[in-house]
Amino acid sequence: MRVIIAGGGIVGLTAGIAFKAVGWEVVVVEQATEIRAAGAAIGLWRNALDVFAEFGVGDALSAIGTSVETWFFDAAGQPHRAPGYDAADHEFQLLPRPELNRRLAQALGSENIRLNARVLAFEEHADHVTATLSDGTVEQADLLIGADGAYSAVRAQLLPGSAARAHAGHHVWRGMLPAGDEPEAGSVLTVGHQGTRGGYTRTYGNQVVWMVNQFDSVEPSGTKKEEALKRAALLNDNGWNDPLVKLIERTPEDQILHNPIMVVPALPRWTSQRVVLVGDAAHALSPHISAGGTLGVEDVTVLVRALRKHASLASALAAYEANRIPHYTQVRELAYAVEIARDAQTYAREYARFSHWMLNEGYAAARGYLS
Questions:
Q1: Which of residues 197, 229, 262 is at a domain's end?
Q2: Whole-angstrom Cα distance, residue 278 to residue 5?
Q3: Helix count (H) and strand count (E) of the chain?
Q4: pLDDT digits (tens, 9 = 90+) for 237-294
Q5: Domains in the chain: how many in total?
Q6: Which of 14, 23, 4, 15 shows the shortest CA–CA distance to 274?
Q7: First and final CA of the chain: distance in angstroms?
Q8: How far apart are alpha carbons 98 and 169 in whole angstroms?
Q9: Tens-digit pLDDT profile for residues 13-33
Q10: Disulfide-capable partner of 75 in 63, 153, 175, 192 (CB 3.0 to 4.6 Å)?
């Protein structure tokens, strides 16, 4: 059996590793000239870490992870956590995206990665699928996986009219730089005024990552640094978050990332006869829940388990879809409750409700028996 995977990001590479581990021939098609990552760092929860362990890369990735125990601070620096939840509901690993992708690519093997090419279109047949690539070649396989992100070409053909949409008024700024004299405890996550969120924390290699975002923001008009500092000021009553301000100030302008947030609308289906969507291609979410990467990696184990359980590809893809679509209906409901929380105490409660569900009911559903 052979699989073509469109997209060489975290989820696409994980899918390649997983399918290779269960004996499939794999080719990951990535449009960049090298495996790299946009962004500074990514938070990954147990749901994803266990998938990495399941397919033999857990130790390599744990070595670059930094454990983060999340508190929710108000703009004056008062910490909050919701009563009735365990410490595990607030713990995840923070990994630097560039090194994470490098290690995933190394585990998959360069012979299984096709660079400088993009899946443009596909054609399904009774016993195979063909994918037309941007370099003019055509690849044939038993299955095509669309792991090509929010702007997925695979999704565009599978479901016309499903283009990613702006999460209106939601902007995020991020950076990563060598650690300085800021307190190691960090300020993740601060819930500020006017729909702002942000903070900073240490990560692998004596680096520190920072992030500020705002819901219902006016359209940014200044430089990236100017706009990030405006949001940081709304997280910094009484100077308690001055270290965040100083981090932004000393980050070079060209190393600050700014993104207006795009999301993929809920889809009526994720599969066809020989094509399946995973990760952001299927469900790009607002990053305020810090779980999109985790959930995308978890898609991979659901798909592989379905293929192991069912004799036919059609039955396996149907089972995968039946598992994932209701799952993400619940994800969206819980994530929206977090989004609309306007104070740290409410945010702490709604976030713990989401993370507890993800780590327990959601985790079990992804690994249970698929009908």
A1: 262
A2: 10
A3: 12, 18
A4: 999 999 999 999 999 999 999 999 999 999 999 999 999 999 999 999 999 989 999 9
A5: 2
A6: 4
A7: 23
A8: 28
A9: 999 999 999 999 999 999 999
A10: 192
- 37-41, 87-91, 291-295 — which is least confidently predicted? 37-41
**β-bridge mates for residue 200, sequence order:** 210
- Take residue 41 and report the two structure tokens written for it: 């760092």
Work out the pLDDT band at 371, boundaries 50, 70, 90.
Answer: very low
CATH number of the domain encompassing residue 227: 3.30.9.30
- Is residue 117 located within the same domain as residue 19? yes
The pLDDT assigned to 30 comes to 98
Q: Is 343 exposed, middle or buried (0-12, 13-18, 19+ CB in 10 A)?
A: middle
Q: Give the Cα separation of 351 and 357 in Å (integer).
A: 10
Q: Determine the Cα–Cα distance for residues 122 and 141; give it in Å rounded to an integer.
A: 11
Identify whether 74 is part of a domain: no
Residue 58 lies in a domain: no
Instruction: State the amino acid at position 287 in one-letter form.
Output: P
Determine, yes or no, domain membership for 338.
yes
* Per-residue pLDDT tens over the stretch 93-133: 999 999 999 999 999 999 999 999 999 999 999 999 999 99
Q: Kindly list the strands in the beta sheet with 41-44, ordered across the sheet, starting from the edge strand earlier in the chain.
A: 41-44, 91-96, 66-69
**Which CATH number does the domain housing residue 285 bear?**
3.50.50.60
DSSP output for 100-154 = HHHHHHHHH-GGGEEES--EEEEEE-SS-EEEEETTS-EEEESEEEE---TT-HH
Whether 27 and 6 have beta carbons less than 8 Å apart is answered as no
Interatomic CA distance for residues 278 and 207, integer angstroms: 30
Cβ neighbors of 107 (< 8 A, separation 6 or more) are 17, 56, 57, 60
- Structural tokens at position 125: 């047949």
Which residues span the domain enclosing 328? 2-38+100-164+265-367
